[in-house]
């Protein structure tokens, strides 16, 4: 798999994720400088493997896209928690 990032090219194994790339290019940057990866317009978290060759742009924690991703995650956690506690009674009819 061929990934381009910050003007550099990288060849990765199948199943490589943004975390693998970040570990290489991070340098002195902090944890909040990249929380998501834009892979040719597809937004990936750090654990989702790249599915194709692409150019990666890092999305920082301070971005609108990161805020939306964290909000969706919090909502899903809340939904899962309610369903686990209340079971089918929590499902509207």
Task: Please describe what this structure looks like.
It is elongated and about 55 Å long. β1 (2-5) and β2 (8-11) form a beta hairpin. It has 93 residues and is of the alpha+beta class. It has helices at residues 18-25, 64-86, and strands at residues 2-5, 8-11, 36-39, 42-44, 54-59. The protein has a five-stranded mixed β-sheet with strand order 2-1-5-3-4, with helices on one face. The model has no long low-confidence stretch (mean pLDDT 92).
Tell me the layout of helices and strands.
Blueprint: E1 2-5, E2 8-11, H1 18-25, E3 36-39, E4 42-44, E5 54-59, H2 64-86
Parallel strand pairs: 1-5
Antiparallel strand pairs: 1-2, 3-4, 3-5
Name a few traits of the molecule:
5 strands; 33% helix; 93 residues; elongated; 2 helices; alpha+beta
Largest sheet composition: 5 strands, mixed
Considering DSSP H and I runs of 4 or more, what fraction of the residues is helical?
A: 25-40%
Number of separate strands: 5
The structure class reads alpha+beta
Mean pLDDT: 92
Rg over alpha carbons: 17 Å
H/E element order: EEHEEEH
Strand order, biggest sheet?
2-1-5-3-4
List the total number of helices: 2
Principal-axis shape: elongated
Which segments are poorly predicted (pLDDT under 50) over 5 or more consecutive residues? none
Query: First CA to last CA: what distance?
Result: 46 Å
Percent of residues in beta strands? 15-25%
Oligomer: single chain
């Amino acid at each position: 798999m061929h990934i381009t990032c910050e003007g550099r090219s990288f060849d990765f194994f199948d199943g490589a994720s943004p975390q693998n790339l970040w570990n290489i290019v991070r340098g002195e940057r902090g944890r909040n400088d990249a929380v998501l990866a834009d892979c040719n317009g597809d937004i990936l978290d750090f654990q989702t493997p790249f599915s194709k060759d692409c150019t990666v742009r890092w999305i920082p924690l301070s971005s609108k896209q990161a805020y939306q991703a964290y909000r969706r995650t919090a909502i899903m956690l809340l939904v899962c928690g309610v369903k686990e506690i209340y079971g089918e009674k929590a499902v509207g009819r």
